Design the sequence.
């Protein structure tokens, strides 16, 4: 298996075949459960940035597989980072104890740095504005399940802070293997970086009725130079019942969460909202990835 013993740092590591392999195993995990496949193995979670879903999801996935977890939820304040230890050394040390590491950090490239010192596989759980491959895996798994694996020709709208959001960057790299087209909906100044190919618009209402997938994201306020700078974009997009009135019946709305103000609570009961179901898909996808990386035969 090509994921065995590999670090998972970047969504570009996945081709179509690799994605389908992850999704097939994730589906089996949903149907058959973890069957103690990872019994005796330990996952270390090293989080240098806030997280609710991602860390709990990795840890739940490992526990559901029968493995164990050692958890660093606030590595900035409570680890040897505070004493000046390098990321490479932290990788060297933790990998003498754990069988696998999941790590989040505010700097792009930091996970790769820790991985360079590690002798066990390291999974990127978000590195600054760069990448968040496992979030994108679960997003695309959600779309794949919804459309029965037939993604060719779908129109995917990515909405929000596409400049600073690591999730849209990773989603694009995975979705481009499935023949979808992209509409990037963002305020000027927060648009998708140049190298991503798609239609660029500012007005959501103008395009929303064409979209099959509405992929919302929040303004990444922690990436701005000041709160005031981020505040300028607050409320730039608010998906509410009125806007949902224009959306195709067959479309779905996804969001990595946390949401701030970009999806009104009234949309939660809309049959097209998938953002809370995604949480469950996330555990299944991470169970699948842990199995593939640790080399368990399915
Ligand atoms: C995302 C992240 O951390 O990039 N959250 C998550 O992992 N579910 C999105 C975000 O914080 O906006």
Sequence:
């Amino acid at each position: 298996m090509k994921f065995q013993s590999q670090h998972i740092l970047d969504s570009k590591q996945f081709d179509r075949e690799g994605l389908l392999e992850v999704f097939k195993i994730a589906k089996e995990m949903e149907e058959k459960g973890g069957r103690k496949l990872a019994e005796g193995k330990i996952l270390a979670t090293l989080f240098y940035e806030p997280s609710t879903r991602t860390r709990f999801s990795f840890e739940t996935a490992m526990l559901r597989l029968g493995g164990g977890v050692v958890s660093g939820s606030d590595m900035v304040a409570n680890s040897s980072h505070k004493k000046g230890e390098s990321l490479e050394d932290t990788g060297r040390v933790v990998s003498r104890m754990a069988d696998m590491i999941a790590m989040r950090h505010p700097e792009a490239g930091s996970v790769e740095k820790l991985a360079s010192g590690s002798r066990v596989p390291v999974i990127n759980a978000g590195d600054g504005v760069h990448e968040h491959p496992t979030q994108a895996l679960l997003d695309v798994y959600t779309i794949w399940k919804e459309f029965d694996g037939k993604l060719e020709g779908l129109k995917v709208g990515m909405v929000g802070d596409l400049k600073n959001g690591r999730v849209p960057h990773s989603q694009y790299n995975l979705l481009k293997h499935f023949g979808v087209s992209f509409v990037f909906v963002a305020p000027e100044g927060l648009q998708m970086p140049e190298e991503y190919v798609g239609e660029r618009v500012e007005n959501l209402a103008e395009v929303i009725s064409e979209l099959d997938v509405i992929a919302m994201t929040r303004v990444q306020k922690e990436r701005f130079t000041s709160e005031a700078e981020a505040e300028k974009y607050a409320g730039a997009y608010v998906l509410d019942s009125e806007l949902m009135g224009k959306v195709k019946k067959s479309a779905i709305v996804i969001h990595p969460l946390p949401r701030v103000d970009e999806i009104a609570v009234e949309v939660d009961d809309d049959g097209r909202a998938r953002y809370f179901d995604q949480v469950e898909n996330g555990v299944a996808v991470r169970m699948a990835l842990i199995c593939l990386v640790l080399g368990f035969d399915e």
